MscS Mechanosensitive ion channel (Mahella australiensis), 285 residues
Amino acid sequence: MWDNIVDAVGQKLSGIDYTQLVSKGIGVLLTLIIAAIVIRSGNFIIQRVMEAQSKRKFPMDEKRINTLISILKSILRYAVYFIAIVTILDTLGVPVSSLIAAAGIGGLAIGFGAQNLVKDVITGFFILFEDQFAVGDYVSIDGINGTVQDIGLRVTKIQGFAGDVNIIPNGSIAKVANFTRGNNTAIVDVTVSYETNLDKTIVILEEVGRAMREEHPEVQDTPKVLGVVNLGDNGVTLRIIAKTLPMNQWAVERELRKRIKEAFEKEGIEIPYPKTVIIPQVKKA
């Protein structure tokens, strides 16, 4: 029995053309190496050309340049992948023309499966040409907040504050809020006790706002005190707002809160906070 198995395996192995097998293997390896070199070289050329564009007399916006770099690299990558796959199949002796004909016959079935892919690619082009957002913009896409890291033909990558990267298919993007276009607004609410003189408090807030405008160039206009916005259980809440350069609103809010607290401490204005009163129990004799 074992002799029969050994003979059968020997006949199979003897029928293999090892020269042709090695030749095909080398061809596949060369194709992969050339594809990697083309992608690497192409990415380098794209980067150089777009960087040169930024140094011209009338340069493009830096974020738009980064977006174009991302899109062009994505197009190059997919094109090289497609050509490499076709070349490898041809090297292995797979009849590529027959596959293309078969694809034509089964095109309808494939089309239904590829609808999402086509939708992703088309939406990617619209994002680029309509300039909805660019690499580096802080956006909210369907409830996902973060900075745009990459825009490809098929997907967009958004990095959140915690460093998490969300990969969103372009075709699923329905609503976008771009926080980087135009000035932003810093909003600070501060609560004081009901016994506090509100007119005096508003004057102090206005002084803090003027100092912020003078000392911080990212504040685009003198902050405005809107007045009382809430009468709560703990006290009266006042609001101050400030127009800031894009993406500076959070830093301005933090600095405003710090300065307001320091100003209130200096003027003896109390900011209400929960207090715990312990009443010792008196034991009856």
Q: What stands out?
A: The radius of gyration is 33 Å.
